[in-house]
Amino acid sequence: MRSPRVGFVLLMCSLLIGCGFTLRGTDQAALPISELALSYPGGRYPLAEVLRDALVANGVAVPAVPGDELELRLSPERLERRAVTLNNRGGAGQYALTLQVDASVYLSGQLLDGPETVEVSGSFYEDTANISGSNNGVEQTLNDMRQDMADFIIRRLRELTL
Asked: Other C-beta atoms within 10 Å of 71: how many?
């Protein structure tokens, strides 16, 4: 009885491997750059930390001060928040968030690629009985959105031809 099940599982795995299926993120080419400076508006800019971590994880050095090397310039984050559903009290229950950033790549001060608007979306539920929990939900959603944005920027940098 077990033999047909095991055979079926092995057959399905062979078919998946044969068609070129890979899990997302496991079959990615290396970035064509070894060093990339980040330039962004002053003050608190949470995307910069997430993006810096993603670049370092991909083997790219991120200097503290931009020089004559390759530079990624980011615009201020633009966040849009709109109500999607209503709760039983007539207030907003679910919100949709849209986060946008313009990104451009410069080489020795000359525009190489962009500007391109990077946009990610997410949503969260607001619990009016638990405001601190709702605020944590918003922050977690924004963190996830920034991670998605950093992943998208990394994918775009892989396509960059120098």
From this structure: 20
**Which residue from 96, 52, 92 is spatially nearest to 74, judged by alpha carbons?**
52
Number of structural domains in the chain? 1
Domain that holds residue 130: 25-158
Beta strands in 19-161 (DSSP E): 37-39, 70-74, 78-86, 92-107, 110-125
Nearest to 39 by CA among 15, 65, 19: 65
* Domain contains 125: yes
* pTM, full prediction: 0.70
The CATH number that applies at residue 93 is 3.30.160.150
Long-range contacts of 81-88 (CB under 8 A, 24+ apart): 84/123, 87/126, 87/128
Low-confidence ranges of the chain (pLDDT < 70): 1-2, 15-16, 18-30, 66-68, 86-92, 127-136, 162
> Which of 65, 77, 60, 73 is closest to 119 using CA atoms?
77
Cα separation, 110 vs 97, in Å, equals 33
